[in-house]
Amino acid sequence: MQDPQDLLELAISTAEVAGVMLVDRRPADLGVAYTKSSSTDVVTEMDKASERLIVDRIRAARPGDAFLGEEGGETGGTSGVRWIVDPIDGTVNYLYDLPDWAVSIAAEVDGEVVVGVVAVPARGELYTAARGRGSHLMRADGSTRPLRCNTGVSLDHALVATGFGYAAERRARQAESLRRILPRVRDIRRGGSAAVDLCSVAAGRVDAYYEQGPQIWDFAAGALIVQEAGGAVGGLNGRPPSAHLTIAAAPDLFGPLHDLLDESGAAGG
Ligand code: IPD
Question: Which atom of ligand 1 has the smallest separation from the CA of 190?
Answer without folding.
Answer: 10
